[in-house]
Specification:
single chain, about 425 residues, 5-stranded mixed β-sheet, about 55% helix, coiled coil
């Protein structure tokens, strides 16, 4: 237990000593502001030091307010400063006055270094420090805590600076009460900077979380749109491809026999008309599938898959294929219990896609449709004899089989498709049909 405690303590120490990541680069406005502030404070500090040498507001005697000063301990005699007027207060070193304000020009880029230089210059000025010197120290303290990447260094420097300020200026008596001494003022400035920095971090973290949520929402919306587009494409493919394929074959047959066998041409055109009507009916079913279930329309479905065809319409589908010139054998065995609407539709689409492929890719072939079932699985198989291609490339990109696999995957089904040893093609699907 103690070992874990020590490890946790060490991790905390390492985290505190570790520098933070670099922030965003400084804007030009921030740089100009800091330079202007530093130059202005430097000029004011030089003017104050020249006009009021040795009499900064930090040092104010209580005698001015009618309060007797306690006796001060005797101080050793100081040797006269060469070049100084006897009886005149000594001016602070001009270099220290400049160093107490001018480094603030880079306070955001090098906050700890600027803080150390400004504080060192102020301590060097000592009792001759003016109110402008205290102000530059406050700004340096605020900058160190606010902008430094080294949190531990900034807080340590703040405490050391407050102690040193209290020691150096212990012989002074400020105009305000004792809690406004330079050491306390530095601590207050540091704490204020810490509070502001913490608030900015919380605000930045909230903005980042909000941006991440927005990105996640946009990504989810994009995926939903893509899935909806894929679903619409699959439905349109299932509905249009089969009926249009039948219509194209019948129209071609009508064109070929129009002069020699007008009656057969008429029958083919009637089949084209029937195929068009079937396509329109199924497109209306698709529109019902895509419509919102709460539109208030009387034909609005409660379940998007319910208005679609099922194995009950298998005879009409096979009749259309036979009318297109493809012999189809059928062997269907269904359970006594009604199939779930989604399963029924999926089984119908498997047969429809397989027969459409036979019409498009194997003209003249014979097809056999077999539908059976077991305790849990519905088995669909469509096999053709291959036929003879006429040399015209069939259009299509395999979207039908891809859509079938996706549709079967929704219900836990599987699809296998491939050529047979006899030269034909077989599509087999297994689909769980029990919902519980």
């Amino acid at each position: 237990m103690e070992t874990e405690y020590l490890r946790g303590w060490r991790r905390q120490v390492r985290f505190a000593l570790r520098p933070e990541a670099k922030g965003a680069p400084l804007s030009r406005r921030s740089v100009y502001f800091d330079v202007l502030l530093a130059v202005l404070l430097t000029v004011v500090a030089l003017v104050v030091a020249a006009r009021y040498p040795g009499d900064g507001p930090v040092r104010v005697s209580r005698v001015e307010y009618g309060v007797p000063m306690p006796p001060s301990p005797p101080s050793p005699p100081r040797p006269p400063v060469p070049g100084a007027d006897v009886g005149q207060p000594a001016s602070p070193p001009w270099v220290l006055v400049v160093l107490s304000a001018l480094p603030l020009a880079v306070r955001r880029r090098f906050p700890l270094s600027v803080f150390a230089v400004v504080l060192g210059a102020a301590l060097g000025i000592g009792d001759n420090a003016s109110w402008i010197t205290v102000l530059t120290c406050v700004i340096g303290t605020y900058s160190a805590v606010m902008y430094s990447r080294y949190r531990a260094g900034a807080m340590t420097g703040l405490v050391v600076a407050a102690v040193l300020a209290g020691v150096v200026f212990r012989s002074t008596d400020p105009v305000l009460p004792g809690w406004s001494s330079p050491g306390v003022v530095l601590l207050v400035a540091g704490v204020l900077a810490g509070v502001v920095r913490f608030g900015q971090r919380r605000l930045a973290a909230s903005r980042d979380r909000f941006a991440a949520l927005e990105r996640a929402h946009e990504e989810a919306t994009r995926r939903a749109v893509e899935e909806e587009r894929a679903r619409i494409a699959a439905e349109l493919h299932d509905v249009v491809t089969h009926n249009v394929s039948v219509m194209v074959i019948q129209a071609g047959a009508a064109r070929k026999v129009m002069d020699v066998a007008p009656e057969r041409s008429k029958e083919a055109l009637l089949a084209v008309e029937a195929g068009g009507r079937a396509a329109m009916a199924e497109l209306r079913h698709v529109m019902g599938l895509l419509a919102a279930p709460d539109t208030g329309r009387p034909d609005s479905p409660a379940d998007g898959l319910e208005p679609q065809p099922g194995l009950g319409q298998l005879d009409a589908l096979i009749d259309r294929v036979r009318a297109a010139g493809t012999p189809v054998g059928v062997a269907v065995s269904l359970p006594a219990e009604p199939l779930p609407p989604g399963v029924d539709l999926t089984a119908y689409r498997v047969v429809q896609e397989a027969l459409t492929n036979t019409l498009k890719h194997a003209p003249g072939a014979e097809a056999v449709v077999t539908v059976g079932w077991s305790d849990d699985l519905l088995e669909i198989e469509v096999r053709d004899t291959g036929g003879v291609r006429d040399g015209v490339p069939a259009d299509g990109n395999g979207r039908g089989l891809i859509g079938l696999r996706e549709r079967l995957g929704v219900y836990g089904g599987e699809l296998t498709a491939g050529p047979t040893l006899a030269g034909g093609f077989r599509i087999r699907a297994e689909l769980p049909w029990r919902t519980a």
